Amino acid sequence: MRYCARCVYPENSRPTIIFDEYGICSGCRVHESKKQIDWQGREKMLREILDHYKGEAQRTGNLYDCIIPVSGGKDSHYQVYLVKEVYGLNPLLVTYNHTFNTQLGIRNLINMVKEFGCDLIRFTANPDSVRKIARYMVRKVGDITWHYHAGIFTFPFQIAVKYRIPLVIWGEHGYSEMTGMFRLEDIPEFTKWCRQEHEMRGYEVEDLINADSGLTRRDLAPYIFPSDEEIEEVGVRGIFIGNYIEWDSRWLADMLMREHGFEIARGKRDRTFSLFHKIDDHANDVHDYLRYLKFGYGRGTDHASHEIRAGRMTREEGIEMVRQYDHVRPSSLDFYLDFLGMTEAEFEAAVEKDRDPSIWEKDSCGKWTLKDSVVNHVNDELVEAARLPLVAEDDRTFGRNNRHLYYSDKFQPLPPSKQTGVSRDSEDEFVIL
Length: 433
Known about the structure:
The chain is mostly helical. The chain folds into 2 domains: 36-243, Rossmann fold (3-Layer(aba) Sandwich); 265-402, no CATH class. The protein has helices at residues 26-33, 39-60, 74-86, 103-116, 127-141, 146-152, 155-163, 174-179, 192-199, 205-208, 228-234, 249-260, 284-295, 299-309, 315-325, 333-340, 344-351, 383-386; strands at residues 66-69, 91-97, 119-124, 167-170, 237-240, 360-362, 368-370. The chain starts with 25 loop residues before the first helix and ends in a 47-residue tail after the last helix.
């Protein structure tokens, strides 16, 4: 297996990744290209877009200028902060409640509504339907969270059509940021194709209605995308703010925590050292563990690569994070096995067909083992030439200024918050909420 000479992503990263002649991946190149972007010019473009839709809302008498799909995470907090506080629009917040929430995520969602004074529509999926979908899609595509990727990228557009609000605003374009699927120069917007092909693993509602799944159209109501005619008649458009504002998740999490009451995790987490990523749902660790079982890498790889690209971590430090976190069986797995009514053996057997043979093989005892790991590629030929300069010591990932944002065994972080000076413990009981 080839690994990026700069970060720690493998060649089989999903949804797509490309290595150049210097051994550097497309995700690293997209991050590098941020230095060449005219961010002032991009911000002007954003203002023009927002002013246009604000004017359209005034012209048609619509009380809402745009829709912001939100959860209890850092990105949606920042989107609402920018749109409401910086640009002065009146957004309608829309949440697809997948039912797999942490108490920390719920607190943050409540805080967002109160802090920024916005209206919120929250649709809660039927847990029985969620269970049936999750059981079927684990077996079909190895994904326990198909329903909430589908819901997050469908329900806001149902509301956009119903309330005739043509602008939907997302945060950063994740596939561009992680693996460089699109270039910043492309200014990618939301497409129905990307939703279906990547978020929904190539499946639409009709594909799930069959005798094996036991699912009906009623079970799948939140995932029925509006027709092309409905979208076109309202003129619905989805944009990503990260194409217009330089997106720094570490900075925005820190700012929101200190100034707007956003809470983050504290204490060691199962599958990453970051205390502010993916804190609003407790199924994410199982979702990420499934990615490891299929492709041999996980959330530690994602977050280490981001830190390396920002100059806050060496590649060697990133490899150590991969070694510590990517293989870990999440503690939440027991809860979800019970929820699904599956044994762990059944759960792993369901994923067996999805294991990537370029990274997994069975040993003589029939046990799956990794053929390779980035741990074996510390001193690859192109690594030294691909290195980036590091930021000041105190601003490094585990430096003094960031110890409240990342976990290390060397210190116990206790993040400050606006109201209390400390965050509450995020080790929530796993509940369907």
